[in-house]
Amino acid sequence: MRAFAFGLMVTAIMGTFAAEVVTESVTEPELIITAHFPEENPFHHVVNGEKNSLFLIVDNKSEFNTTLKSVSGSFHHPESQALVKNISTLSIPVLSLAGSKFSIPFSFHSELKPGDYNLHVWVDHTMEGSVYRVTVYDGVVTVVEPEASLLDFKMLTTYLVTALIVGAGGYYAVLSFFPSISKPKRKPVARPSEVGITSPVGTVKASGVGYQEEWIPEHHLKKTRGPKKANNDTALSSGDEKGATSGGESGTDGPRRSKRGKKA
Fold this sequence. Notes:
By secondary structure, the protein is α+β, with helices and mostly antiparallel strands. The protein contains four helices and eight strands. About 10% of the residues are buried. Residues about 15-25, about 235-255 and about 255-264 have low confidence and may be disordered.
């Protein structure tokens, strides 16, 4: 009996020692991680539509190596702590050696209504197949809208694209409802009966084909008019001489005939 009792005592002691060893092997490593905003953002503002940055300081004070797995977070109501929106998870497979200290940049975006929110950020890391979670930031931040600027390239591009779309839609609507506007107006063509016939200006030849002197250069008119006047003058002078000679002859014949009559 005594031997049996001694055996049970030894078994209980060994079981307790084994349990202590297992407990020590699964102890979470001492990994301290903190997060802070950049120095140019002292009021912890989170701007909608822009990239907001956080810097994670990782300090592994344990004797074991651990691997950082991912960073994630969420926005909560500052009073009720109700979940408002989760932050996209960022995978960071980084090995943290025992006794090492380093920093990791982390950025996220926000599309929330301006106001105060409680920001909660955490990091998941693994060691020997076990996953651990460390809270790196838990505080109130202020969500604000970006500052408006007339020279903002994004805003100008947005306005330009919107104007082009609206203009194209308006032009298509006008062509659809008012097709007569798109057709070019044709000039009225005068019919032959409506065209006025102008009488020729200037001299007309006997053949009936006339010409307008106002369309003929002046030096051509002088050349054509000179010889005609000379011919007319010569014609007139020759005619006058013939008339005079004929008249003289007729005058001489007259008295001669009268004299002959008297003789008879």
